[in-house]
Amino acid sequence: MRTYPVPFNEDARVTAVHAVPGLTRENEPLFDAICTAAARLFDCPIAHVSVVEQSRQWYKSVVGIELSEMPKDNSFCTHTIMSGEPMVVPDLSRDPRFVDHPMVAEGGPQARFYAGVPLVLSSGFRFGSLCVLDFVPHAAPGEREMAALTALGEAVVAALEKAPAAAAEPAGGAAQDVFLSLVGHELRTPLTIVQGCLRMLEARAAGDVERKLAGSSMKAALHLSRLVTSILKFSDVRTGELQLDEAPVALGPLLEELYEDHALAMEEAGKTFRAPSCSLDAEVLLDVEHIRTCVTSLLLNSVLHGGGTIGTSLALDADGQIELRVSDDGRLDEHVELARLYEPFTVGGDLSERGTTGGLGLGLPLTRRLVELHGGEFEVLAEESGTTAIIRLPKWRLAARTAA
């Protein structure tokens, strides 16, 4: 299974990386000098400027060790570029994300300390990091050291873009704030009205069915409102980037809640919705609104295109990874290209026993992007007995729940 998260805007980010004029394989003394300064600043033997591409990481400069390009599975910097903030790990062997990492575990070089800052282009895209490494743990560095490392990172970007260091600050910040403010207002106003009307309908509903429908609609409106707030707060309209609002969440109760919310609608659609099967009680560190969006999208896809029986389950797989499944007893036509189901606006050809009303739209590709943003994997299994959508999340999200 993949061991690293994937930025939401990965395709656009990689395109921006390839367009950086000074980002070539040829080394220059300037970048070696910056790495040497960073290593001395943190009293570390190793420092490097990394470049993170689609499936690999290579180095513009390295001091203290010889490194060739490596797959992203072996890269710490794939985690650093997930936000605009520095990443500091005082002891890699005690961090659940890296305890099994080949650079950390026994048999490898057994790296322990890492501190890195993302390298942010003037366009807002992050292409790599300036980082330091040591083979012994360090105490957490102070603000002075991290501010200096950030400044050195900005110097790397300025040199690569052939621009003054001030250009490393993304342009258009004020315009972006105005845009987000206006969009947020326009989205929240009708949602507030919808929620108010649903509250009144719920209060005045005469029968149990009407009250359940109003209650389910109210929960859906609240979820949409929270999702809008999260996207506006944690997204970047310039780059298409999206960050996670992570917190420890019990997935079992979330599946139970979604079951209660959708059971009546499933019944009205002539479907049998089985109660969730959950064998995992522990909390998981994740963005609950995005996971809720993923599962809701998969349930809707099963209602529109699946068979007569739909169910969800939550368990750990044989490797200890978290596995969330949405299954139905519908079957994909043999002519369907399953890989194309991940593409936006793709119906996927003729579907047998699944219908084509509404198409597959953005549901599957959006789910895949959000799952990969969590460092997980998403796949759809088409078998004779039915179709199963699987969300796998890395096991470190279990161990990391107490760190939130």
TrEMBL record:
Where does the source fall among the domains of life? Bacteria
Q: E.C. number, please?
A: 2.7.13.3
Q: What is the lineage of its organism?
A: Bacteria, Pseudomonadati, Pseudomonadota, Alphaproteobacteria, Rhodobacterales
Protein name in UniProt: histidine kinase
Top enzyme category? transferase
Q: Which reaction does it catalyse?
A: ATP + protein L-histidine = ADP + protein N-phospho-L-histidine
Question: Which keywords has UniProt assigned to this entry?
Answer: Kinase, Phosphoprotein, Transferase
UniProt domain Histidine kinase: residue ranges: 182-397
Q: By its UniProt entry, which Gene3D superfamilies does this protein fall under?
A: 1.10.287.130, 3.30.450.40, Histidine kinase-like ATPase, C-terminal domain
* One Pfam short name: HisKA
* MF annotations from Gene Ontology: phosphorelay sensor kinase activity
